[in-house]
Amino acid sequence: MNDADIKRISRLTAIITQLQSKRLLTAGELADRFDVSVRTIYRDIKALGQADIPIIKEEGKGYSLMEGYRVPPIMFTENEANALITAEHMLLKGTDTSLSREYEAAISKIKAVLQHLTKEKVDLLSNRIAISPAILHSYQSSSLTLIQNALTSFSLLEITYRSNHKGELTQREIEPFALYYSLKESWLLIAFCRLRKDFRMFSLEGIVKINKLNSSFQPHKLTLAEYLDEKKKKFDTPDTLLS
């Protein structure tokens, strides 16, 4: 087997992984991802089909894997595993306990499929990384996972919020839109506030109480990039809170 064959097998495996991680991908997107021609992607998709991988083509939309089809766990390279371990240390020292707990569980599953030698190197690296206490925030939240779920399911949230400016408490019904990480404020939730009838940024530190309601809302057409650009026009930094 020559280098070209090895490279193609690696690409075919990566294409399956990409299709498993996203609902739809076009040939152009796959070509850009792997730095090959669209014609090459067509040949790869045909080869995968001949290998009984159930790839579905939706005319004018792209490719997807048949619903319910899953490939066996993918082996991580040493560099990929190292990147995940480094991110683990940053998250475990972060300000949200729910995110740290879920990431720690995911890392445990990843470690379980690592080859023995890679696992030894990953454990060594894990013991040689430390996060300076000087950059840690003085508070912790536990609502980030709940917010993520509400954001992706378009579920309404009810919060009790303490404003940074006046310190007063207000009850809000909000439509979660996006998450933004700021070195000054840590995690911020961008949401449409029904009280203010506009988009606002909420510091997770200021959220005293939060509940996910059984009501949903229509997704907003505004993109995150458009929102941040608009904020930059009004303030020196998009991190500026206005709640």
Automatic annotation (TrEMBL):
Question: Mind telling me which Pfam families this protein's record contains?
Answer: HTH_11, WYL
| Record bears the keyword Transcription regulation | yes
In this protein, which residues make up the domain named HTH deoR-type? 8-64
Q: Which UniProt keywords apply?
A: Transcription, Transcription regulation
Which is an annotated GO molecular function term of this record?
DNA-binding transcription factor activity
Q: Which InterPro entries match?
A: CBASS_pafABC_assoc_protein, DeoR_HTH, HTH_11, WH-like_DNA-bd_sf, WH_DNA-bd_sf, WYL_dom
Gene3D superfamilies for this protein:
Winged helix-like DNA-binding domain superfamily/Winged helix DNA-binding domain
Source domain of life: Bacteria
What is this protein's name? YafY family transcriptional regulator
Gene source species: Pedobacter endophyticus
